[in-house]
Amino acid sequence: MSTPTQQQTFPADWQRALVVVAHPDDPEYGMAAAVNRWTREGKEVDYLLASSGEAGIEGMDPSKAGPVREEEQRRSARVVGVSRVDFLGFPDSAIENSAELRRHIIDALTERRPQVVLTLYRGPEWAPGQPNQSDHTELGNAVVQAIGESGISVQAFENGPYPTHRVEVTEDDVEAAVRSLAEHQEYLGVLDPSTPVLEQARAQVGLMVQTADDGSRSVGLAKIDT
Ligand SMILES: [Zn+2]
C-alpha cells in the first residue's frame, strides 16, 4: 500500500473519460469523489455498466430489482455530474470476459473516444482473506482486453488496493461522493436496515478516500499497462 504522497498526480491533460464497471454502486465505491472533481472542472465522464445489479437486493425479485437499481444508479451519477449511464444487460453474478462483452466495450470506446478509461480492480484479493468478486475481475479483464483489441490509445486505471496515482479532491467532492452513494437507497437500506443510508454512505466513502499526513484528501487509482 502506498501513501498518497508516494503516488503520482493523476494526469490532467484529457477531456473525456469512460467508467466501465460491473454493477450499480461500483463507481460510488471508490471513484465518485474523483468523478465529481473532473465534471466540476468541465471534463466529461460517462458510465457504462455490464449488469443492472438485479441479483443485489436480497428478498427482491431480480425483475423488480434491476429497474430499481438502474434508477438509483442514474440518480447517483447525476449527483457527481454524470449524465450518460448505459447498461449492457449482462447477468449480475455471472459476468464473463466474453467476446460479446468485449464487443460492447469496443463499440463504446469507438463511439465515445475517451482518453481515460477507469475500471475495477482485477487482482484476486483486496487483502489476505478478502477475495475480489468474480464479476469484478472478469469485467476488468474484459475492459483491458477490449482496449487492446480496439487499437484505441487510452490511459487506463483500476480502483484497486495498490494505487499508483492520486486525484486530489476537496471536502465538497467527498461530500458529493457521499450523497452519490446514498442514492442507492433501496440497496443500502436492505444491506444494513439498522443504519441510516446517509450514515452508511459517509462511513464507506470515508474508508475509500485517502487522507495524507497534511489532511489533504485524494482518490487513489492504479495505472494499467495496456
Ligand atoms: Zn460490483
Report on this model:
- This protein is α/β, with parallel strands linked by helices and 226 residues long.
- The chain has one domain (4-224): LmbE-like (Rossmann fold), CATH 3.40.50.10320.
- It contains 7 helices and 11 strands.
- The strands form 2 sheets. Strands 1, 2, 3, 4, 5, 8, 9, 10 and 11 form a 9-stranded mixed β-sheet that branches.
- α1 crosses α5.
- The protein starts with 7 loop residues before the first strand and ends with a strand.
- The model has no long low-confidence stretch (mean pLDDT 96).
Share in helix: 25-40%
Shape field: globular
- Uncertain stretches: none
**Main sheet, how many strands, which sense, barrel?**
9 strands, mixed
Which small-molecule species are bound to the chains here? zinc ion
Secondary structure elements and their pairing?
Layout: E1 8-9, E2 16-21, H1 32-40, E3 44-49, H2 62-79, E4 85-87, H3 99-112, E5 116-119, E6 125-127, E7 130-131, H4 134-150, E8 155-158, E9 165-169, H5 171-182, H6 185-191, H7 197-208, E10 210-211, E11 217-224
Parallel strand pairs: 1-9, 2-3, 2-5, 3-4, 5-8
Antiparallel strand pairs: 6-7, 8-11, 9-11, 10-11
Helix pairs in contact: 1-5, 2-5, 3-4, 5-7
Zinc ion binds next to helix 4.
Task: Provide a concise account of the structure shown.
By secondary structure, this protein is of the alpha/beta class. The chain contains 7 helices and 11 strands.
Keywords summarizing the entry:
two-stranded antiparallel ribbon; 11 strands; alpha/beta; single chain; 9-stranded mixed beta sheet; 226 residues; Rossmann fold; binds zinc ion
